[in-house]
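Data deposition worksheet. Section B asks for the primary sequence of the deposited chain exactly as it was used as input, without tags or linkers unless they were present during the calculation. Section C holds the resulting structure in token form. Section D is free text for depositor observations; keep each observation to a single sentence. Incomplete worksheets are returned to the depositor.
Section A, Depositor: J.P.
Section B:
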Amino acid sequence: MRMEEVFGDFPVLETERLFLRKISLKDVDDMFSYCSKEEVAKYVTWNAHRTISDTMEFVEFTLEQYANKKVAPWGIEYKENGKLIGSIDFVSWQLNHKTAEIGYVLSQDYWGNGIITEAVKEVIRFGFEKMGVVRIQARCFEENAGSERVMEKAGMSFEGTLRKAMLAKGKHQNLKVYSIVKEE
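Section C:
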């Protein structure tokens, strides 16, 4: 399995309420509206976007990833209103080991409605069925109870806490690790 085979023609995924699709320049305003919120950026590795150019820089990087047929984020479009409300992606894919890690972010306006869990389940399905992985993991900052609930509701199991495993937000963060394997 090669990355270009899976992501060369970037796949569009669909769930009951969502389209997981390429991010485009038309999404910059929607993305800025949630990426600029301190509460949304609290538990991710990046800082809240201060200007629209911060968001544009990320979108341009993402477009380059698509052009190079690399793993890149899916934009999460809410079918009900057509807005981009978040993103989800494989933050790493170890082809030799058949493992991958997912990461996600969602607009605070949509928290608590099972939306990100719906997206995570679909991306997990895609990973097992189309990427040939046997294990998918996700990690979150130790104090991110919301993300832990998402991983649990998506069928992932808690494996443990990696102590001081990542330098982010000016300090070494403890990371909780969850995973699911294909047989599950």
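Section D:
Residues 88 and 104 are 4 Å apart (CA to CA).
Helices lie at 3-7, 28-35, 38-41, 52-67, 115-130, 145-153.
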